[in-house]
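Anyone else keep sequences and structure tokens together like this?

Example one:
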Amino acid sequence: MTTPYNQLDAWIDAHFDEEVRFLQEMVRVPTDTPPGNNAPHAERTAQLLTAFGFEAEKHAVPADEVKAGGLQSITNLIVRRRYGQGRTVALNAHGDVVPPGDGWTHDPYGGEIEDGKLFGRAAAVSKSDFATFTFAVRALEALGAQLKGGVELHFTYDEEFGGELGPGWLLKNGLTRPDLALAAGFSYQVVTAHNGCLQMEVTVHGKMAHAAIPDTGVDALQGAVRILNDLYTQNLLYKQVSSKVPGIKHPYLNVGRIEGGTNTNVVPGKVSFKLDRRMIPEEDPVQVENDIRRVVNEAAAACPGISVEVKRLLLARSMQPLPGNEPLVRALQQHGRAVFGEEIPTSGTPLYTDVRLYCERGIPAVIYGAGPRTVLESHAKRNDERVELEDLRRATKVVARALFDLLH
């Protein structure tokens, strides 16, 4: 017997080559962030959506706000599809992505296909879900069924820098207020919680001197080493703290960038480093920041002549499950089981995402889309990022079926 689900699946199968070509076009327009010149990708996306009969509203973030956020250009897109009275489901994917880096065996902007995988920067995270969500909505509308409510596609461009100029900007400016949100993710779990992230810059000041007479200066690098050692000691303590959220283990701290000094024969007068502190959902961000500042200041105080500046760069709060997400979770799990032939569990993830911004405004949201079982398998933020085309096909079916349930 033919069911609406069979019809959705059949439409997606019949149009899958077109979906793959759409994803290739998404990958072929670079969105390296930094530098964050992302408006051209939005323009290309809007052009392709127009060919499907979708009108994409272009919401350009003012240049001064973009510059203050450390980027060059952002145009966020909203596609509104209204079917009748009822709830609105937003589908959000971000187009910005970290630069490719070294070690690629495929063109990072080529969208090349090999062994059933499509390669390219953002092929998995999260340009794949530009395709997943667009073609799920196209399949839903091709069904011709009587639907309620509506769908919005939110394609945004600030996830790598925290999301405040992406979904956060759309929500803050009253441009959207959905009832439920589904954000880009992977195919084998429905993510309902994630870590928070605090990023800070620590600048250590000493006094420059000639290396031949080092006692006339104050070595900022030695001060930085003392501070770093004390911070890394905290990592040992973090491992003793366990989250109760499946998929999330414990807090941790990473120092990702260090710079300083002027020359080999000069005692460095200034050293700065940037740290990334991942916070489990149970932690209080205010307390976490205060603790880091305390460790830094106490270590600096133990180094005569050293002073420090500590600046917060980013505070992304953790995502907590909201009451009201059950219909979305239930539909994704039910159809994930049917399409993938296995249980699709709910879980947390150690990543942080901009979907938290929907939750912070009381909009129940979950994370699901096209991708492998783990971030490691996707090569996200590494060389040769890829998505399995079969995961893309099946995730599109799951999302289309879930939307039918939510809007029928």
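And example two:
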Amino acid sequence: MVQPAWQDPVLLPVDTAPVPEYGSGSLADLLPTLVAGQGVPGFTAAIPELTPADRNCVFLIDGLGWEQIKAHQDEAPFLHSLLPTSRGGTGRPITAGFPATTATSLASVGTGLPPGEHGLPGYTARNPETGELMNQLRWRPWTAPKVWQPYPTVFQLADAAGVRTAQVSAPTFEQTPLTKVALSGGSFLGRLTGEERMDVAAERLAAGDRSLVYTYYSEVDGKGHRFGVDSDAWRGQLMYVDGLARRLAEQLPPRSALYITADHGMIDIPFDEQSRIDFDEDWELRAGVALLGGEGRARHVYAVPGAEADVLTVWREVLGEQFWVASREEAVEAGWFGPRIDERVRGRIGDVVAAAHDDVVITASVNEPHESAMVGMHGSMTPVEQLVPLLEVRT
């Protein structure tokens, strides 16, 4: 039924957003569950469907969500065949966490904590100490890593408990601050090609009676951003990574469990004015805003002091039919960032948080030209972005 022009718009209630399964089925729960099964003190099995193994390997494919695997059986026959094994044989996905973006998700994986505790609540977030917007993926401007994220990683705690621990990834990631605060502990083994990473991951898995190995591949996400998940370039990467997963699975030593997961899914956004709302060209959305953080489908909006209520009202009026638009307090209360929020993290969350419901993004053509030109996007709580696989191979 067509809504009469005089009728007030139907705004999306904050409590209708599908909050991630923190504590029972999110990325933050994966490593704690695995190391609890290996006898590492201080951890409990948060994902009850998983069965303990002496040797655990996590292969994280950046950008390859649950919905993408389901939709591409021809390009990913091996991964598609494993869908029934997901989440301990239930055939169900887990959730990434909010926002569904790489920096946040990798920190959740490595620390075993939701974003409200590890403190990387988005692609960019305001540093309350300086008032500057910090890019948490590229770590700019420089911020002391251990101040920004002070908790030990699960890898560090597992290594201290005698589990043989390793990360196998591209050499360029070894010294990055994000690796230091989220994925460090045990040995870092840099390998250039995907095939080398799979082979070394299998070797390191076999090196201990109890072992925990993490390996990573990024280019599915890279091609998705640049060309979209409906492109031949993206499909080519999916075919390649399907072969990598099979290669690793075929080399697993005895008493092993391989878990194939992702940090988020992805959605293609059309290049039209209805689908791409340009903050830098919209005087209503800019009014009273000091900083625009986050990314296109998961925005942190930092208001000029005293303008918080007005900014919330305007953003709801302009975007509330297409985005879940919440105040900081509402987003925290609804559990978007997890059940607990550290005080050091609270000020990093926007005064207003906007999470996309429809196929739409808030770009910033002047201040974020590279990000605004991307085809594939992610960040919000919709199934295509939020649901990630937890495919399993055991020996």
